[in-house]
Structures are given as structure tokens and as C-alpha cells.
Specification:
This protein is of the alpha+beta class and 378 residues long. 23% of the residues lie in helices and 30% in strands.
Length: 378
């Protein structure tokens, strides 16, 4: 027998004032401290299938339904499917007129409720998107694969129970990842791809030098054992760093890695153009490694910075502990919010001395507007 069972859900910071559950006169506190009368949370229950869905209803005028899975067919062990599906992607292709590709792509993303950032350039597409369902993301991915030369576009999927992005942005750029080297063309040649399962063996060899091609603030929260940190503030600084340090790698094989793989497509092509013969890179980047390689067998230390509201991820692509300083866009730990120099949305211990008071006042005004917008949403 199937049925629908009303239950109570309280905000985790509010102590329930009663034990009785009756949606007709229950009051459920909301996040801004106010209340919505006649609020209901309804489980869709089947004696054979268990809890297979949950509906949220409130007197403030909204209704949401989410599917549910059960562990051991036990309602007490039920958990939500992740609310947001995230797809990280890139593909090098030739777009003669990227400006013409922008409007239909933007419109499709908006129609599907997909948010994130996609960069279009003559050399291809790069970005991360998130949707309210796998189906919505798949529709956008299908559109991208229909673009010229993009049939083989690959992507990596992750999930989050918080919105990874606030809105959708499709931007036209000179490069989909900025290196500033006009002769670099990953479509012509790249280094040898190394699968995550084979990466540990490669970087453990004495004749291999391992180089992290990411920015310094990314490397600071996690990297592979023994990896060299070029300490670059941007990817465009990598060629100059290589020119100044290439003598260190005489007779060495070079293994490179980055977040999702795109920077290594360019950096390995660049090294091949500089005459380096044995160049390797991690296929799918750190994200694929953390997804595929068990923590017990991993040589990764720390967290991996990601360019969305998750801020960082760990093994299994679980969200990491980091927050983002919106003053400098660096990752910080929750404990860092107690350090001198931290002001929400304005500064942290990294950047408090790097910005002017005018900068800080601008950031404070931005933070004020964000707060007002959030209160209007609730």
C-alpha cells in the first residue's frame, strides 16, 4: 500500500518546542528566524519500496519534490540524492566565430536552470556547470558536443547539496585557459596521458620530476608527495618559470598535473615545443585521481581547490573543509575566521594588508548587498 506521511523538519539550530507532529497547526522556523505556518514535509511511502520521495510544502507559497533512496529499505536510513549535479569540462577545438555560439548556449543553460561559467574562445570551450538534475546537465553537454569538433568532449561529474554557483555566465575569451603563448596548440600534440591507476608508479620513479602546474594558492592546500611547486600566481607565469628552471631537469622525464587536465594540455605541448622529449600528464587531472584512487593507496596530501562554492574537495570528491575569502579568492579554513584580519566578505589573514581601505569599503558594500539579496530570497 502506498501513502503520503506528513513529518516535521526543524532547522538544526532551533530546538523543537513539542513532540506532536501535525501539519495543520505546526510552525516550522525558517532560516531568517521567522516562521511559515501550515508548513509540511511529506514522505511518499510504499510498504514494498519504502520511502521513495519527499515533498516540501510551505504556506509561503512553494512546493519542492525530491526523490529518495533507502539504505536496507529502512526509512530511518534514508538519504537525499545530491541536489546539484556538477560537470567540469573542456575541449580544444576550432571555433571560427565563438561570439555566434554564445547566445544559444546561454539561453539553453537558463532554460534548464543550469548555472556556472563556460568560456568560449577560438581554441575551444572550458568551464564548470551545475544543474538541478543530471538530465538538465546532460542537455547542455549534448549541445556542447554538437559544436564543431566537440563530439569527443569529456566531462567529470560531481555532486553537491549546496548551490555551486549563483548564476550562469558564458564568456568570450582569447584563450580558454590563459598561457599567453600563441604557438601552443594542444590539438597538434600533447604529452603522454597517464591513467590515475598508473600515476603513483610513474611519480615514484627516480628519473621522473613531478611538477604541479597550478597557482600557488591552490598548491598551498594540497598536492602530490614530492611535487615541485613553481609558486606561480597565474598559469601565464609558467613559461618564464620553466625558462629559469629548466636546467634542474636535465635527463629527467617530466610528469605534470593540474585540477582537471586543461592546463597540462597546454603545458605539455609547450614543453614538447621546447625540446623536452619525455613529457607525461595525469589524465583527468587531480579530480579524476581523487575519484578513482582509494585514499589508502593515494599519494595525494591535503585538499584540491575547485572553482565553485565547494571551494575544495577530497578523496571521493567529498567537499573539503575550506571556505573562500571573497576579498582575495584564496581558500581558508574555518579556524582562520578567528584570526586577526578576517572580515567576512572583505579580507583574511592572507590579504588584509594587500588591499586599500577603499577596496575594503567596496567589499563591505558588496557583502551588504549580498546579505540583503539573501534575506529577500528567504
Amino acid at each position: 500500500m502506498a501513502g503520503r506521511m506528513p513529518i516535521l523538519c526543524q532547522h538544526d539550530r532551533v530546538e523543537p518546542a513539542h513532540q506532536r507532529v501535525d501539519p495543520r497547526d505546526d510552525i516550522i522556523p525558517t532560516r531568517n528566524g521567522e516562521s511559515a505556518t501550515v508548513a509540511k514535509i511529506i514522505l511518499d511511502v510504499d510498504d514494498e519500496k519504502g520511502v521513495h520521495g519527499i515533498t516540501f510544502c510551505a504556506g509561503i507559497g512553494w512546493t519542492l519534490f525530491y526523490p529518495m533512496h533507502l539504505l536496507h529499505n529502512n526509512p530511518c536510513a534514508a538519504y537525499f540524492d545530491p541536489m546539484y549535479t556538477i560537470a567540469a569540462l573542456y575541449h580544444f577545438a576550432r571555433f571560427d566565430d565563438p561570439n555566434a555560439l554564445k547566445p544559444p548556449l546561454q539561453e539553453l543553460c537558463l532554460a534548464q536552470g543550469v548555472t556556472g561559467t563556460l568560456l568560449l574562445a577560438r581554441e575551444g570551450v572550458n568551464g564548470t556547470i551545475a544543474g538541478p538534475s543530471q538530465a538538465a546537465v546532460d542537455i547542455v553537454l549534448a549541445h556542447l558536443r554538437a559544436l564543431p569538433g566537440c563530439a569527443d568532449l569529456e566531462h567529470k561529474i560531481a555532486h553537491s547539496d549546496v548551490p555551486p554557483f549563483g548564476k550562469m555566465k558564458v564568456r568570450i575569451k582569447r584563450e580558454i585557459v590563459t598561457m599567453g603563448q600563441p604557438d601552443v596548440d594542444p590539438r597538434a600534440s600533447v604529452g603522454h596521458y597517464v591513467a590515475p591507476a598508473d600515476w603513483n608508479d610513474l611519480i615514484g620513479r627516480d628519473d621522473v620530476a613531478v611538477i604541479d602546474t597550478r597557482n600557488d594558492y591552490e598548491v598551498a592546500i594540497g598536492t602530490f608527495d614530492g611535487a615541485i611547486d613553481p609558486k606561480t600566481a597565474s598559469f601565464g607565469e609558467f613559461p618564464a618559470w620553466w625558462e629559469a628552471n629548466k636546467h634542474r631537469f636535465h635527463n629527467k622525464k617530466i610528469a605534470m598535473f593540474c585540477t582537471g587536465g586543461i592546463r597540462c594540455e597546454k603545458s605539455t605541448n609547450y614543453l614538447l615545443g621546447q625540446g623536452v622529449e619525455d613529457v607525461f600528464h595525469l589524465k583527468g587531472g587531480i579530480l579524476k585521481y581523487l575519484e578513482d584512487v582509494p585514499a589508502a593507496q593515494s599519494t595525494w596530501q591535503g585538499s584540491c581547490f575547485v572553482f565553485d562554492n565547494r571551494v575544495s574537495v577530497e578523496h571521493g570528491l567529498r567537499p573539503g573543509p575550506h571556505l573562500l575569502c571573497h576579498g582575495c579568492r584564496r581558500p581558508i579554513l574555518p579556524a582562520d575566521t578567528d584570526r586577526a584580519g578576517y572580515e567576512a566578505g572583505v579580507s583574511c589573514h592572507h590579504c588584509v594588508d594587500e588591499t586599500t581601505e577603499d577596496d575594503k569599503n567596496r567589499f563591505r558594500e558588496r557583502q551588504k548587498q549580498i546579505g540583503l539579496m539573501k534575506r529577500r530570497k528567504w
